[in-house]
Amino acid sequence: SSDLGDPLSAALDTRWDMAFTSGEANVETRSKVTLTSTATRFHLRWELLALEQGEVVFERGGERQFDRDHL
Q1: DSSP states of 17-62 as a string?
Q2: Which residues, 6+ apart, have CB-to-CB distance to 71 below 8 Å?
Q3: What is the pLDDT, as a whole number, of residue 19?
Q4: Is the pLDDT of residue 1 over 70?
Q5: Are 57 and 51 in contact (CB under 8 A)?
């Protein structure tokens, strides 16, 4: 989403869900990444979730900022 008059308001949101079942195995992963920026820095946020038989078995997330150096 963004405000058309303000390019710094833009955000990139991605989500990827995958599920596998085979016999008794039933696993699922969910990931989400969000990228925003200011005039001088990018801001990256992520989440990862793994489920087995519908129960969370792994969860991790974080964020990082880095300079916009005209990559």
Answers
A1: EEEEEETTEEEEEEEEEEEEE-SSEEEEEEEEEEEETTEEEEEEEE
A2: none
A3: 97
A4: no
A5: yes
